[in-house]
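Researcher: Structure prediction, please.
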Amino acid sequence: MTSTTTRLLRLLSLLQDRTYTGRELAERTGVTDRTLRQDIARLRELGYPVHAERGPVGGYRLGQGKTMPPLLLDDDEAVAVAVAIGVAEDGSTGLAEIDRNAARALAKIEQILPKRLQHKVIALRTATEIGPADTGSVEPEAPVPAETLATIAAAIRSGRALDADNARVEPYRLISWQRRWYLVAYSLETHAWQALPVANLDRVTTGTHHFAPRALPDTDLVAFVLREIATAGWKVHAKVTVLESAETVIARINPTVGVVEPVDATRCVLHTGADTLETIAVYLSMLMMDFRVDDPPELVAHIRTLAARYAAAVD
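Model: Predicted structure follows.
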């Protein structure tokens, strides 16, 4: 028979998940209905606001109270919170009180994390850099399984090659930008540096090959990834002549929008990309500069359609 403390912790963990009927909770904790009611009363005495709802869809749930009681986190939740707080601490919010509290919260979590979870947190934190947050991207999110990130981070930390979709790479850094993840890696197939979108990798496993660190493609790997995204990381690409100097355009855009090549004092060529032609059209309108689309023809057709629609809207 489990101890009262163990049973209460199990009950609290369940209540943090969703609403349960009394019968469900009694079965999951292996007690009678009477013992369940006693356990609910004990949690309330400890400051946990356990609410009871009547009716056909009623049950017990954990609600809001007047104080902040301790919470229980499972392994994945604990790792996620520790990494997220660590990233926030590294970036600094600029608010002294919040930064201090974040550091305190992280210290508390790291103090009680089991060794196996500490290794995951340390690997993810040391292997990750954060891209700029103020780029105004409208691209959709690209979720990545936590286990995939953990596998990559562990390989980076141990200096072991990865088999990524049957291609062997040496992993060097994870870059998180706009809720997307990229892996800076050296391809043993093409012998070139790459910024791989992690969401596009179907299978990632740790290989047996240990590698010696190579000279990096850039001292700033975030900048390297942003340049790669601008030139090759999107599903569709465009070449646009902008009727302004290269200096003016560069000052107007962020590095992920594209690569700018000067033509003369009044013109430059912008190589840009996105996941859809519609997004490129939005980017170009946000430039607030005159431009001419050189390629692809599909983007020219799309902008003509938009132009006709806008013209009709103000007639």
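Model: The mean pLDDT is 83.
Researcher: Thanks, that helps.
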